[in-house]
Amino acid sequence: MSVVARRVAAIPVRTSTQTWHTIVDLLARPESTATAALTAVTNIAAVLISEEYTGQAPIIVSGADGPRVRIYTVHGDAAADAHDDEMPLATFPTDSASWSLSLPCGVDDLEDVRRALSAHPRIDIRELTDGITQPEPASSTTTGRLAVDIEELNRP
Amino acid sequence: MTTVRVNTYTYATTHVATNMLRSLRQIVRGAGLDTTHMTSQWEDLERGVSTWLDSRHLKALVLEVYDPRLPSGGDLVGRFDFLIDYGYSVEDDGELWLDPDTVGYTIRKNGSYPSGCTYRFVADTAPGRPDVTGWSSTTFRSTAGFARQTVGTALGGGTLGASLAYYTRTR
Questions:
Q1: Cα(A137)–Cα(B2) distance, rounded to whole angstroms?
Q2: Which of A45, A100, B76, B137 could form a disulfide with B141 if both were Cys (CB 3.0 to 4.6 A apart)?
Q3: pLDDT tens, A59-97?
Q4: Residue B159 DSSP symbol
Q5: What DSSP assignment string belongs to B133-153?
Q6: What is the pTM of this model?
Q7: Is B21 within 8 Å of chain A by CB?
Q8: pLDDT tens for residues B65-115?
């Protein structure tokens, strides 16, 4: 499976809520059910962005089709540069019928956030230090083709 | 202390708005209160605070902790104020900064509140403020029997600063 990464400018270029709305616009078609599902967790996602968890570990969108998408938020001095470099994705990853999204979370907030997300089945939480815990989609086709994302390789 | 350097007042208001709320959330958690109540209001809180900082109407953002089992007028058990100073720095050098020790000290000095206590946020605004969805008018709970303790400036950016104070019982 290939991986595509994007960086989204957060505080101080955008508030945490504005940052999440920008991410939703990146991931889902306007007025789609995916947009509704992602918008429904705005408060929770914005809190995680404000804590800068999403700057330390990616938001991950997975599905049976297309590449896995990693979104990092950029905070502080680097946010203005990241804003200038923002790029849309080639496709909306939530077009896949089986899309799911994983949010990184610090251990102090894990229990409360997991409880708050219990009513949102497509959206999961993982510990900040866990890395990618989502399983590979069962229906993913392995063709042996290698895809390289240069931006991801350039990350420190 | 962490600092970054940027150049616009809007960046300063965004930095101060989000990090004031982040700091208050840390106080809520440190006081043993349920953070999910605050999380469920996050978008409204951030919209109001950033709007009124940008328009320079926000005078203070206040966290009132109260015990709903106590009679009205005497139900306040704790209070934390972020006081806004629009002339904190003479020079707008664009530096955005946050001192987590100020919040950490406040949490350590206050301890936790009994179970059953809850909280709300009140924005003290100057006349003529723009209306913001999700906010309504109210009055502060009585602070009779409490004294205010000033901790110091916790965060700021350019000419904008936010100092933290808390209330303790005197009787």
A1: 40
A2: B76
A3: 999 987 888 999 999 999 899 999 999 999 999 999 999
A4: T
A5: TT-----PPP-TTEEEEEEEE
A6: 0.88
A7: yes
A8: 999 999 999 999 999 999 999 998 867 677 899 999 999 999 999 999 999
